[in-house]
Amino acid sequence: MNKRVESQLHLMKKARALVSGTHAITSPVVYMWIASDASPSRQTQCIHYCEKYKIPWEITGDKASFSAILQQPDVAVIRLINPHFLSLIHANKEDMTNEK
User: Fold this and answer.
1) Inter-residue contact 69 to 95 (CB < 8 Å)
2) 35-57 residue pLDDT tens
3) Nearest to residue 80, comparing CAs of 93, 94, 66, 68?
């Protein structure tokens, strides 16, 4: 995970826009990050969920970086629940595409 995305995740955490794990919540999920070292079954489960509910997702980072960002142990999935941050995510993807 690059430093820019990591700093933006810290910003989202401060805004209370991130939720860890896959437990049930009342807020709608608008984006999901899945750790690259999450178990294959967890990755498959999350991808299936995202595709079923048309939630954009990506596999990036690792559990250690996710845990450090959220300051919780063993985080394999981060969910964004505030749609206002989606433009920031899309801008990151465009910047990464333009750099190649």
Assistant:
1) no
2) 999 999 999 999 999 999 999 99
3) 66
- Helix, strand, coil content of the chain in percent (nearest 5): 50, 15, 35
pTM, entire model: 0.88
CA angle 74, 76, 81 (to 5 degrees): 115
Reported as a pLDDT band with limits 50, 70 and 90, residue 94 is low
Q: Which one-letter amino acid corresponds to residue 10?
A: H
- CA dist., res. 60 & res. 77, Å (int): 10
Can you tell me which residue has the tokens 């294959």?
40
Q: Write down the pLDDT at residue 76.
A: 95
Count the Cβ atoms, other than its own, within 10 Å of residue 25: 11
Coil, strand or helix: which one is 34? strand
Look-up of token digits 């750790």:
35
- Say which residues have a Cβ less than 8 Å from residue 66's Cβ, sequence separation at least 6: 20, 33, 35, 75, 76, 77, 78
